[in-house]
Amino acid sequence: MKYFKTIPNMITLGNLYCGFLSIGFAANGQFNNAAILIIIGMMLDSVDGRLARMLGVEGNFGKELDSLADIVTFGVAPSFLVYYTHFYQFGVLGFVVAGLFPLFGAYRLARFNISPTKSSLNYFVGVPITAAGGILALLTLFGGRIPSIVTTVIFTAMCFLMVSKIRIPSLKEFPLPKYGIIVSLFLGAVFFVTLKGYYGQFPYLIYIAIPIYIAYLAYRFVKVKGKKNS
Residue span of the signal peptide, if any (predicted)? Predict the structure, then answer.
């Protein structure tokens, strides 16, 4: 049983590492790769918690580790990505503004961690940092067709929506639709990058992430179908 505890944590650490790699790719000017790694992080983030519940190894350690990973992958990495693609033209001011995103995200995560578990299963208070960071990553992928002012407005909106009191329905009890959304976004991003001719620079991590994620989806689908039939 003690070995099972490490499996969800390793997936969470994989999420964190995706955030680190994303920052490195952004710093080297490979913005599409940086955005794809954030989306891969979304895939891993949607798996670790459910896997911990499946294995019966949920705990405070995993919850805190997940928050630390999220602030890097969906807070720090997207802010660097937006800075290098849009805000760099404003110099120091742009760097300061980009740094606000992880601050709002950290506040959002801290509030989520102390919220009642029952309410967090039914709805989120404020936009989750995972969704906010994923939106910024997608904006970067299609940044050539989106004016900078639109990105700036969405960036600002995401900051305030994360700490808002708006209730957003949670999809934790309906895993397959949520996975469908994430997979659709991911495959769309892959198609876009391939179409644009960046296939040669594509992160090799994707060849590991996709088979594992599809296998997990298949397992969840069979399990849900089995419960309904029984």
Answer: none
